[in-house]
Amino acid sequence: MSTPANPLRIDADRLWQSLMDLARIGATPKGGVCRIALTDEDKAGRDQVVQWFQEAGLAVRIDEVGNVFGRRAGTDPQARAVATGSHIDTQPTGGKFDGNYGVMAGLEVVRTLNAQGIQTVAPLEVAFWTNEEGTRFTPVMMGSGAFAGVFGAEDICSQQDGAGITVGAELERIGYRGTVACGDVPGGPFAAYFEAHIEQGPVLEAYDKPIGVVSGALGQQWYDVTVTGMDAHAGPTPMDLRHDAMLAAARMMDAVNRIALDEAPHGRGTVGHVQVLPNSRNVIPGQVKFTVDFRNLSQDGLDRMDLGMRTQFAQLAAQCQCSVALEQVVKFEPCVFHADCVASVRHAAEQLGYAHMDVVSGAGHDAVYVHGVSPTGMIFVPCKDGISHNEIEDAKAEHLAAGCNVLLHAMLERAGIA
Amino acid sequence: MSTPANPLRIDADRLWQSLMDLARIGATPKGGVCRIALTDEDKAGRDQVVQWFQEAGLAVRIDEVGNVFGRRAGTDPQARAVATGSHIDTQPTGGKFDGNYGVMAGLEVVRTLNAQGIQTVAPLEVAFWTNEEGTRFTPVMMGSGAFAGVFGAEDICSQQDGAGITVGAELERIGYRGTVACGDVPGGPFAAYFEAHIEQGPVLEAYDKPIGVVSGALGQQWYDVTVTGMDAHAGPTPMDLRHDAMLAAARMMDAVNRIALDEAPHGRGTVGHVQVLPNSRNVIPGQVKFTVDFRNLSQDGLDRMDLGMRTQFAQLAAQCQCSVALEQVVKFEPCVFHADCVASVRHAAEQLGYAHMDVVSGAGHDAVYVHGVSPTGMIFVPCKDGISHNEIEDAKAEHLAAGCNVLLHAMLERAGIA
């Protein structure tokens, strides 16, 4: 049993084994997983996890957009549930851990409590959310967004993939179009929601910490930028008579970097996509389109980045005798997780004696949407070289176990032991 | 007749009409011309020009690589020919004037002399060179390069297009595989070669000069550059842990511009082609490939640019925790045209009362290869907005006539009136 000196721990081997078992469904030759939302592979993965939920005694509930919840009763029938979860859909060349870890960790918490015969005061729930990755159907984080009321269930069900097939039709086909209204939880909204996830970045590894106490998630503002000059023959056009869209764009890319560095440590600026026209070796580019991805932990910070970009881009375009047009295409507001949930994660890590550090999530997660309707916190564990969305995504069994132990104790703190 | 006060002039309307007639062969709906080397359209264009040559009394000679020469006898059977020419092949979406102008101007010189009954001491020749554009078959400026001995005729004839068809087979098919050895001219190498061409740049228009006296052509050094970093998720990867290949490449592109500006007025630096991997909006690029096109009027200048680039690229790559690899893929040496030919062009412009300025050619031309084996000069006339290799390529009839008048008098000065 658990004592202050020797706290309860999950079964690290069982957790690892369930991750490896789940990874066989949609396994790729390079060691990754392809289990795209609402495909046959997703159905097979869902069926497996639901079977495990039921074997662990969880009561399974499915909502209108295919989110699945497994509930373990508490001793207080009036108490609101303490929940955890993540997603089991993957990128086309995804890994074994992104999302899957959070769901298997939740299952392992339940199995551990079952094995130890521990009852909680509040009910516990383990969820997996539909289509977090957004590979086949947009928007990303579809299920948790609908659960939080950001999207309407009907709108979500009418979203189409590239072949014109709707989310609703695919949910029907694979048997996961439930009847529970989105956001409806027996006894009322979650008392707390925790999500364990691989970091998908290099910070924990760089600082050699097995546990990241996630204080919040960066807001995101994405832009499409078009720089227009005049294409001309690279030889006969002297430097001073050029309208070189690539030169202007290159200087803007450097400005994106400087703007992000000015917002250290949380500001991030990335140019990931570039298209050059006509893209010919001896023609001065007449047009360059590129993307900007700005992230920051405060809306004030994002506003400063937006203004700095608009001001500098206009100057740099004029400097190169070009024009520039900007369109904002995505916006996610910054999120600061609930102080009580963050404290429970930190307390659990301390109780367990794990080295830990406060981190922010640079990526979006289902937890960010759930945060809109319930107190929420996240637990990060390191992943190898910070790589995810990749078949070589990897994580150490000891780190995965540490994160799961932290999840166990954070949930127990919020739910109370009966 | 010609007097110092009223020098002989070509027939501007006839020159314009022959340009418009030739432009009907391979005409495109947008007003341009598509007459790619050694296609049926090229054959039709060649047949038309040869017919005009013969109607003008020129003796036609075809060499092993399909270069065509029309010869007008001089009074001195020992004298070496004074020649002119250019090309009639075009880009896929080419214009009416690039190349075609130089050939029609040469024909107009002959027609003018015929109409005035003027005999020259030296023979005159009008040439058109095979495959200047290099669109279907490489290398570019194939015919003049073979004429100058830079390429072997057999090597050229075995060059293949994308479908595996050889230059030799296509020359046979269209009836232009001649028997004259490349570089073989009756009476010996040209005494002088002049090429009239649209500028393909904006300088003459910007300075409002109808005539450019071309003093030389820029040397060219082209490179393929590969910047390698590490692709990573744009959100969770802090700025200081990135290996952002796009950031490094953007700074290198700015350096290319500064290196060229340091070599004003003749230095030119262009990044025309860019490829980003994986080119996804929210992924830090792991690799960027781009091209560099450096031009300058001296080899010393090109050497400085090369060294500056290598030094700065290495520093910029290291600054961004990336690596860089450079490969030089093309080299054309700078060319200074023959002082006597340049003087004849300038003298003709002065004699005719045309505003003129010394310019350099930023692009390659057949004249640059011919310069290797004979004294050579070029005449530029303005083209609208400096645009060529484009269906909207345009030039004013009065400028084309002026350039042709300069060609006439430059050739007469070198050939001598009998």
Automatic annotation (TrEMBL), chains A, B:
Q: Which residues bind Zn(2+) 1?
A: H87, D98, H197
Please report the organism this UniProt entry assigns to the protein: Comamonas terrigena
Give the protein name, as stated in the record. Answer: Zn-dependent hydrolase
Q: How many and how are cofactors bound here?
A: Binds 2 Zn(2+) ions per subunit.
Question: Cofactors per UniProt?
Answer: Zn(2+)
Q: Name one Pfam family in it.
A: M20_dimer
* NCBIfam families, per database record: hydantase, PRK09290.1-3, PRK09290.1-5, PRK12891.1
Q: Which residues form a coiled coil?
A: none
